[in-house]
Give the backbone structure.
Amino acid sequence: MPERGSTDGDNEYLTRRKMIGTGAAGVSMMLAGCGGGSDGDGSSNGSGDGSSDGSGDGSEVTDNPVEALHGWTGGDGAEAAAEIVAMFEERHPDYEHQIEPIGGDANENLNATVARRLANRNPPDAFAGWPGLNMTQYGGMLDSLTDIYEENGWEDVMAPKALEACRMNDEYRAVPLGSHRLNNLFYNVNVLEEAGVNPDDITDWDSFTSARQTIADETDYIPVTTTKIAPWTVLQYWAQIMLGTEGQEPYEAWLAGDGDMDALVRALEKTQDFVQTHTNEDRATLSFPEANDKLINGEAGFFTMGNWAAGMYRNAENFEFEEDWGWLPFPGTEGMYVFHLDSFMFPQDGDAPVKARALAELIGDAELQVRFNNLKGSIPLRTDIDDSELGDFLSMNVEHLNNNKQFPRTLAHGLACTPEELDACKDAMANNFSDPYDPEATAEALMAVFE
Amino acid sequence: MARSKDTVTGSGSVSTGAVPNDWRDRLRRFSKSDVVRSFPYWFIPFSIMGLGVYGGIGWNTLISFTDYEGFRERPDITNLDLDMYIQALQDPAVIVTTKNTFILMIVFTTVTMALGLFLAILLDREIRYKEKIQTIYLLPMALSFVVTAQFWLWMYNVNNGLVNVVLGVFGLGPYNWIGSPDLVLWAVIFALVWQFSGYAMVVFLAGLQSLPDDQFEAARVDGASAFKTYWRVIIPQLKSSSVSAAVILLIFALKAFTFLYSMFGQYRVPQATDILATLMVREAFQLQNWAYAAAIASILLVMSLAIIAPYLHYQHKQGSL
């Protein structure tokens, strides 16, 4: 009995042991997988650091596809991004790529994805983003592109403002792709004509105010269509009004931590008036394309937005520049070009350094900049391109980019402030300037951001 | 393998002392016990689930004790303190969002359950087209937040939204549902109640239909009115249904992030609807304050547990859990 029992037991015991062994092996493989994963990240990080300085020359072409993330998911943005893909395939047919969009408003999901990937030590080879002070959040993570700039002579052919915005820690760390201008006042020609408003008379805040009043008095149209669903729009309105009524100097002084409280309050009071009176009541539920639709449909007279809004006019049927819609610099900002910049950045430790360099060279290429920006409705940063390849509206903007003297950096699009500061500015607006409106408290909160 | 056989036979022949025999016996019995025999079957799923859920909670808690931020450093787990929690308790944004989260959870869960119960009782009254009505009420639950958030946004439009058009028939409004800080949280809660009351209804209806008919008949014989029958006899028996409904609804209240994000298209929502979840995402993915965001997540977890705990405790005492 005991013998039999023990042998039987033994056999059973063995099979169970096998099972346990298999189970344990499975679990340990799982754990090893986790641990191994992070180890791998660590080592790639280390080796990447070493090689990144001399990247390019010594690096071999790897089998990995070049992975580039951008935020242009729909409409003209997606068409423009398709140009990057097409040209990359034309020039480097043997280079595999994953140039992919990450959707969402104002780069929000894109930035979140990039942040997650960088924190997990699994960076994409390239990603689109705003340079300037916004780029400081990636400090220490980005590859130097100075040698690519030198090889291609970009320092001589790129807009100086863009060169400046793409520098960090004494090196070029981003390739400029296109610029949107922010101080725009778009108008519907028909509405202004019916109201008897001459757009050429609108040169400053007071004339703009009386134009709004005239449209309200003479017609049933909405004088200004606005969107307020997101705090950045209000921040953006305020920045334009501040620049238009107080000028560039107090704006820059405020950003430098030396602001004039009274100037901020005056601009905020005007912003409150701008948002509350002579506008659409449903501004809190409209996104910017929905607000812009009101101008295209002929329901509203004016709209202010970055010139990506003009992409919608180009795509609308029978809605032509200077016949159906017109453009003015935002009242009081004549001679300014409020500067926004889209660029590509290239993290260190990418999996495909050689292909990433090829992509970087392509982004700065004159032909790509024309093809991309023509569709995107932004302005190429190359100063050596042929204007005739661009539409009328873009050519006008190129001229302004090359000839204007004042280039205040955009606040709501990260050139003038770090992400923390931008978040604090939005907090200031969300907490104090959203029905009820408190210009004094808002000004105090805004002053505190840069002090 | 051979070794193990040796020891087993060895233990049979050698009887030097009772002590080794004893632990070998125990070991053998243990190895034959159900726990060990079933080990490969329960341990793998358990460890995967445990790693995903409790591992995640544990890692989050650990991160919240560090000062982890930005991209360059890895979390330093040698230096743990409560700094992030102290900072959070002094942060006005955390206080405002905690208040909003609390209101959202309590009001949404209570109203949804009350409405679900009411609908379930109506449907239980043998009305006509019962199945069809049931489906109609349950349908919103099948829709994605992405869809419902967008069309509630349209319906809340102050000028041409359906809500104001309907209210206008009764001479009310128009109300600026989304634009007014006093209304927007209630508008969001209403939309969520709309989406989930059908779910609460189905849970309660299943509970109602599992009750035997004799209880209704007995109550009727005793001369109880319909209201009294439900209030005194039927509803007290729905405790286990209400536990499961409450837990699930509370979880959906936490997921209101998805609804808000879909509605406003960004992580920053109007201040009156800003909840801990949206604040947490902003701190983590926009500002890379990983430790601070982890602390906010822990606060959110503790808060949900604190809300549901007294209820679960009560139900446990009643024997429904």
Q: What stands out?
A: Residues 55 and 212 of chain B are 44 Å apart (CA to CA). Chain B has 16 helices and no strands. Chain B touches chain A through 50 residues (CB under 8 Å). Residues 1-37 of chain B form one domain.
